[in-house]
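User: Predict the structure for this protein chain, please.
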Amino acid sequence: MWRAVFAFAFVDNSLSIEEQELLKSYLATAHFTADQRRTLFADMHNPQDVVEMYRHITSVKDKERFCILARAMAWCEGHVDRQEAAILSKVSCLYEPEENIRLLNSRKEAHLYDYYQHYAKAGVRGLMGYPHQMALSA
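Assistant: Here is the predicted structure, written as structure tokens:
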């Protein structure tokens, strides 16, 4: 699932300050093995196809979590219809009925507001002097 999340972040070939902060927080807080970290760092230098990575997710819970995290990265100032349009433009397989239901259900995620707050704080820091693009490092 994490490879799909990272692929989603890189699909437009650039990382905003907000996306960088989210990915850094995932790397810092998720319990990755050394091999998983190496894979994610390799993916950051050679981004993967998000649809292909999503199709490799076998757990329903992980698919749901992907939708929640993608929604956080496609923040669009909390406007859920624009979020969904942004997500669907990057992950076309989410148009499939079963997958689309997961995306729509992610609107109700209890922690979504916290993700938005984290994203917004990262954006404020970016406005206060960070360069628009910077290298992601752990």
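Residues 124-138 have pLDDT under 50 and may be disordered.
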